[in-house]
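Below is how a single chain appears once it has passed through the pipeline. First comes the sequence as given, then the structure the pipeline wrote out for it. We keep one example in the README because the format questions we get most often are answered faster by looking than by reading.
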Amino acid sequence: MRENVSFTSAGVECAAWHYPGSNGGCVVMAGGFGVTKEPGTDRFAERFAAAGFDVLAFDYRNLGESGGEPRQVARIADQLDDWRAAIAFAATLPGVERVGIWSFSLSGGYVLQLAAEHPDVTAAIAQSANVDGPAASRNASRYQTPFTALRLIGRCILDTLGGLVGRPPKLVALAGPPGTVALLNTPDAQLTTEALDPDNQYDWQQAIAARSVFGAAVYRPAKYASQVRCPLLFVVCDDDQSALAAPALAAAAQAPTAEVLRVPGGHYAPFLDAHETAVEAELSFLNRHLTPAESPLNHSA
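Resulting structure:
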């Protein structure tokens, strides 16, 4: 029942899936930092749509079916702008009165910043969210060999400099075993394909430009938690080694309206053994906070 749609963000066309709904609530979704909409959102989007919600699942610029050059470059500022454009577009969809947001991993951290700054966000779900880039980077370094860490840093520097003079990106894998150059070498990151694309049905490039890594390593959206006023659900994986549980729990304690669901397992538990637990809790949260008649969007704005 979904349809291809698109919206413009800073002059770039972003591709999206729209699942029409019936209850007036729309969930805007995106995959993790370098993850496209199909592997990143399909399993959850289908459940939200079946419950009556509109869903808008989109690709960031430079990734997937969206436009933008150079390809596979993921800049946090650009991705946040894509989110803002997606939220504004969702509010114009037929029948939509309220907008919620959902994402995971590094993009789950975006949820905090967006919910803090955007008064039209009615509810927000941060799943396996990386809310403290420096802490996550320090932990991830435990699973890198010193030589591999130097190779990664060197590639990031070279790619950053190359980007300044228009050279094509040097890519790094999103995940890889220790001893390989990758964004993450953590044990639970090795489950990326099993969790997001177990049947190898999606055509997506599991790599990002090395120039993107430094921004992710220093991004710390936990600082926005105390400013969030809409209902906010944290889904926290107790054994997460890629986006640590402790910073997410600390951020939840700072958010005035936060709810927390803790599940056993690593970073991708909500896609794997804890999927039913996570999706049922998220549906309950959305039904309570995204469907009430109060707090409609102001379409005249």
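The radius of gyration is 18 Å.

See the next section for the split statistics.
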